[in-house]
Amino acid sequence: MPSSGRSVKVDGRFLRVFPAAGTTTISTQHMYQSGRHFLQIPGPTNVPERVLRAIAQPTIDHRSAPFADLTRDVLGGLKAVFQTQGHVVIFPASGTGGWEAALTNTVSAGDKVLGFEIGEFSRLWHELARQLGIDVEVVAGDWRRGVQPEIVEAKLRDDRAHEIKAVLVVHNETSTGVTSRLPEIRKAIDRAEHPALFLVDAVSSLASIDLRHDEWGIDVTVSASQKGLMLPPGLSFNAISEKALSAAASARLARSYWAWEPMVRANQTGFFPYTPGTNLLYGLQEALRMLHEEGLLNVFARHERLAGATRAAVRGWGLETVCLDPDEASDVVTAVMMPDGHDADGFRRLVFDRFNLSLGAGLGRLKARAFRIGHLGDFNELMLMGTLSGVEMGLLLAGVPSHRRGVSAAMENLCGSPVTTSDPSGTPS
Amino acid sequence: MPSSGRSVKVDGRFLRVFPAAGTTTISTQHMYQSGRHFLQIPGPTNVPERVLRAIAQPTIDHRSAPFADLTRDVLGGLKAVFQTQGHVVIFPASGTGGWEAALTNTVSAGDKVLGFEIGEFSRLWHELARQLGIDVEVVAGDWRRGVQPEIVEAKLRDDRAHEIKAVLVVHNETSTGVTSRLPEIRKAIDRAEHPALFLVDAVSSLASIDLRHDEWGIDVTVSASQKGLMLPPGLSFNAISEKALSAAASARLARSYWAWEPMVRANQTGFFPYTPGTNLLYGLQEALRMLHEEGLLNVFARHERLAGATRAAVRGWGLETVCLDPDEASDVVTAVMMPDGHDADGFRRLVFDRFNLSLGAGLGRLKARAFRIGHLGDFNELMLMGTLSGVEMGLLLAGVPSHRRGVSAAMENLCGSPVTTSDPSGTPS
Amino acid sequence: MPSSGRSVKVDGRFLRVFPAAGTTTISTQHMYQSGRHFLQIPGPTNVPERVLRAIAQPTIDHRSAPFADLTRDVLGGLKAVFQTQGHVVIFPASGTGGWEAALTNTVSAGDKVLGFEIGEFSRLWHELARQLGIDVEVVAGDWRRGVQPEIVEAKLRDDRAHEIKAVLVVHNETSTGVTSRLPEIRKAIDRAEHPALFLVDAVSSLASIDLRHDEWGIDVTVSASQKGLMLPPGLSFNAISEKALSAAASARLARSYWAWEPMVRANQTGFFPYTPGTNLLYGLQEALRMLHEEGLLNVFARHERLAGATRAAVRGWGLETVCLDPDEASDVVTAVMMPDGHDADGFRRLVFDRFNLSLGAGLGRLKARAFRIGHLGDFNELMLMGTLSGVEMGLLLAGVPSHRRGVSAAMENLCGSPVTTSDPSGTPS
Amino acid sequence: MPSSGRSVKVDGRFLRVFPAAGTTTISTQHMYQSGRHFLQIPGPTNVPERVLRAIAQPTIDHRSAPFADLTRDVLGGLKAVFQTQGHVVIFPASGTGGWEAALTNTVSAGDKVLGFEIGEFSRLWHELARQLGIDVEVVAGDWRRGVQPEIVEAKLRDDRAHEIKAVLVVHNETSTGVTSRLPEIRKAIDRAEHPALFLVDAVSSLASIDLRHDEWGIDVTVSASQKGLMLPPGLSFNAISEKALSAAASARLARSYWAWEPMVRANQTGFFPYTPGTNLLYGLQEALRMLHEEGLLNVFARHERLAGATRAAVRGWGLETVCLDPDEASDVVTAVMMPDGHDADGFRRLVFDRFNLSLGAGLGRLKARAFRIGHLGDFNELMLMGTLSGVEMGLLLAGVPSHRRGVSAAMENLCGSPVTTSDPSGTPS
């Protein structure tokens, strides 16, 4: 408080200097940064306070009747979100665990699976599969496009011996902002008349982008809590088709924690084969209620609307998205190419320090070459405008060559087609 | 969830219709509005989550030793914020109670006080004084300027009999966005060599705009919890000079709840003469810590910076602020005149419904003629940009004649002087 | 952590000593006391975590439509608790403010009111009335009995000129654990055919002991948030009869904050004449829901059951309650006389330090001579048994002459009539 | 609320009946049960409100600098609790995951390990090991004693070929309330001069019972969040010796999620190889602070004191603990044998319904034959007395043959040796 010490201005901030110590008492590091943090990485997303308060409920006995009610409520709500009538299982684990579960329950060591490297997360999933002893045939990509249905079809047609046990597709590649067209990929598999399981990573798409587990014939949909479901990380999901469940009976990878069968069985009575993540389940219950209140179609439409405005902003800045095909542009994250010679990570640090805004880093081969704007989860127009303003001012302050027309383009986009401004002075603007 | 019923689109939102009932289950009213609410009225302000979690601590015995520690910690921190070495008392009440306390402790029924109607809140304070039987001499104003020091001086010089017992000044008139120049008013009183008490309403200025109780010779500074102190409403404060405390000995208005003397006495041992607002005191302790971490001078500088950007936006829109004198422009709230023929309240409803943004209403004689943008408390650049974007889009959608240059002007203001945009394409923009 | 320094045992606790400093790092004062605190004073009561989480919801605009919904919901629920069809008003204030409001709205300076000093809180209410300039005729009491209906009748019959404008009765005198018989007092007033208003302090009885504002012809019922309503302190209530409301029109005590009329008027549209205590209203909404879920009659029955067990424990210890008439024994607090020569406050400090249990102090003339066990609000059998065990062990450790049969007597009481213990060894126990 | 409908009393509770429906509106199932729930299962334990509020902090970017600070703080605090200078890793998983990690990082399919079935949890760990393809040699036990050091020694001496790669010991067998003597088991391994790794399950002992990872030469200590660490479930830990880390290099079980090496590497910079359980880490940080404030030795002493009182109660009831050897009696949970012909599960349901108290079920071969009283984590004397009172009243109400002397015996135990009651009436009691 100003009553002791004198103040000096350093980097635009006042620090207090005390005579005795001759030094400031409060380091920049621990200073309170006023106002809300803008967590605009593509997950974890901004957890709504309703969910935060829900997870702060006292932990109860996970073998009691009230807990069984919780389980049933949550599983019912989850099925609606996955758009499935089948089983959905919940692991107390983060999304990586869901990847591992999808594989250990369906394939065996030495089995061949087909993967498509369209970005960092698909690459990591393949790596994980290899660590489990699975033979992953990877179709390389340029990290700027999604999985091409025609390649899926061609690859599967070539596999006349049906050695490929599963096709691995990342629905929304979080590292590039590219959404693969699952219905067309499903049709490609069908056209190839191939029996491979269709395993989908929907970690960053579920509850934000339309994903129809049953209708699209997905065998395992993997997801996690910290994206569209608006929760902290710590829960991972598998939606499981009957075909996948049958495959589990013969899959021979060692599994215990990730085993579906005891989970599905225990869930039927509202319980779990080992201690579940009780407090995150409270949060999940609340998040499902919120999705229900808004309506899932409204949730999808909102993500589409805010993503459209984001892309308008990127065009307004004169920058390029990582995603090359507009039909594959992600409604949850927009990855933006940094002009050559400019460091995306330095830019991100600047907006973090100056504007209390977290943007996603370029990952893997895009490291320092791109930054990512998350626009998913508990999000709305004005949070987006704050975010885009932070990016626009950051680009300016970082000296990144760009037009200052992104924010205004986004506003135009959100308000409908560009409108002639009415003018108080009588002069057309 | 989409698994039952069919969806129809109404007003851009999907509602579910169920066959049996033939009606939607979720009314618009109860729909979850995604993302954070922008509470940009000039108080209550956005309560930071640290404060919300603090007030959720279990209530303890207000006659216990840990409670006395809390009292002492909070009173110490408050004195630093009021910039006083004197007494500060805390009432479990909202700000109106603080007004009443300032008067009942210092004047008697029939006493004359001098007031200045510079807006709705000064008007209400005068009305309250009259209800207490006090004779209020009101200097009328145009609601677009602050208290004029020269009028204060003149009025006091005229009062040779020293009948005026107190001068009432609202530091920051929340209804108009005008900040009166307290140090000059103090000097005016001194020049008039008048013994009147100097009573200041700092409800919306404390902890946002510099306010020096001791240095400026204020006798009673009234404030409340729900503005710069970032708390919910429910606590009210009086900082009290020795002169005011002496006046209390002879002031004869009936008082019990608002009496200073038993409060000051009980506080010395860390307690209160009646049950205090324990959980809001928890929040106050946390809020004072946060102000301390940021540093009070930084807090003032931040409010000044964000207010400057807001005014740049208003100029960008081609609109007029209620405040006419730039030297009196408030750093906590900007009141904006609505062009004639346009309804400010309809505009506010539109931005509330469409953008989840609460703006302040025009009050009293400004009803429907002005709207107010609060930019105080736990606030930062991107929250401001979200707010200003909401206003700009709202003006557009409401068909209010305005330029669409407010948001860009605010960004320029925040980034320093206007800069030539670097251009990726080589063409000057 | 034990990895550095060595530990020494002091007073049964291990403290760490570090070589360099030669001193302990953690003072006893700041040590975390494991487990839940037992807050068994007669208010503030243990605030349930549902209520704590409710008050941690973000503050909203108190002039918005969602706020009006909140007001209406809360006022409706409150009326049911007060058992009235009339007006209930809510002040952002603690209970003392409710006392002041009841008086300033109904009587004038110099008016006579009739009061009964049956303990410290009735004494304080009278003192407050005198500070407001009211002429209080006090019927003295021994602080061990409630208000005697026959005295009420006699006093009113004597007042043929009907100078007494109001009769003030504390329903449950929190300092003594005595509950006055309101229905009989009402009948006494009626028998005297006296027009005095019937003002009742139900601060510590509401929502714990049956209280029927309408049926019992009460004119003003004063209450507060921090007792049976299970909230932190900070809200105060007046339930108001039509007769009281009429009296307000002619009552001439200066009032502004406490004025009913603008409050009642504003409430009709869901709003308040000045800033309300938003976050405590959230808590009130949740507390009313909880009372509704349990059912008000169940709430009363539970308080009666736990109070009965407490009194059985006091008898088991061979101690005496302050309350002399079993028909007036309070269901919310039991005040216990300390045997002569033993200091009740020293005893309370011992149980606080040793068992993390807060008991109520003897107040006023009972200071150090009695202690009080609160058994109201969010409370149940095992919390009571923990409390009574703490008292029994404390009596033992403090060397207070007493039998060690209180806890067992309470258990017998809770389980029904004393039962012969079945014996595993075949020997009668 | 009572204003509508009439009330009927059913099973001692009032239910409201409405004329129209002729049925109660509130089912017993959804009624609010007043007061705190007593969660006295041996984990999850009562999560202190400080921890609950900590986990409700907003989720941040797990790749940011503030997150790295959190990681370092938490890992430092954890090492002190494990009493190790080595590595501790944190999995976003429940305890079962920690078991799996301990094995997959140290042994290979087909390897032999030595296990001791002393209860249900040791049995489950063996089963998990078998699912991973490990050859488990199990020493059977009677479920009433801990691991016998002499058998460990004998078994290892017999294994001259050193085929046994690891010895698995459950420190505190939660199903039986038996604590194995780890230091003696370590000495037994040493005496046998056997190179097997020493793997310890400290899930229910860590932070409650002394456990010295380094000093006792443990190679992997497995633990989890929901017991002595006072958190909700969802985090699992491995403390890892250098020897174990070396073993990981050659262990050939497929692993990805559970792999130590990438975890240890990423932790060095404050990060994680995949998304960590951010909000539970907030809670862990707070829980470690609380353990630090109380002092780890005080924590152990408290558990010992409360366990001693619990065992005194069991003796007072004339019942038998599952644990036969007093030197192995657990300080965190007491399992109690139910007299023949009485159903422990029925008894538990009765105390749950009647007293809002959750007790642990008998597991495996003790199903319905025993119940368990958890007395660990955030716990104190009066919570224990409430718990024991609930058990004593429950035994009475369930008609279980028992003496009614448990509660009084526990109080005597807590107050020191039995004392002669001072007697107010002069008659010896």
Account of the protein in words:
The structure is a homotetramer of 429-residue chains. With 429 residues, chain A is an alpha/beta fold. Chain A is 38% helix and 18% strand. The first copy, chain A, contains 13 helices and 17 strands. In chain A, a hairpin with a 4-residue loop joins strand 2 and strand 3. The N terminus and C terminus of chain A are likely disordered. Chains in contact: A-B, A-C, A-D, B-C, B-D, C-D. At the A-B interface, strand 2, helix 2, helix 9, helix 10 and helix 12 of A face strand 2, helix 2, helix 9, helix 10 and helix 12 of B.
Sequence-ordered SSE layout with sheet pairings:
The structure is a homotetramer of 429-residue chains.
Chain A: E1 6-10, E2 13-18, E3 23-24, E4 38-40, H1 49-55, H2 65-82, E5 87-92, H3 95-104, E6 112-117, H4 120-131, E7 135-140, H5 149-158, E8 164-170, E9 172-173, E10 178-179, H6 182-191, E11 197-201, E12 220-224, E13 235-240, H7 242-250, H8 260-267, H9 278-294, H10 296-317, E14 320-321, E15 333-337, H11 344-355, E16 357-361, E17 370-374, H12 381-397, H13 406-415
Parallel strand pairs in A: 4-16, 6-7, 6-8, 8-11, 11-12
Antiparallel strand pairs in A: 1-2, 2-3, 5-13, 9-10, 12-13, 14-15, 15-17, 16-17
Helix pairs in contact in A: 1-9, 2-9, 5-6, 10-12, 10-13, 11-12, 12-13
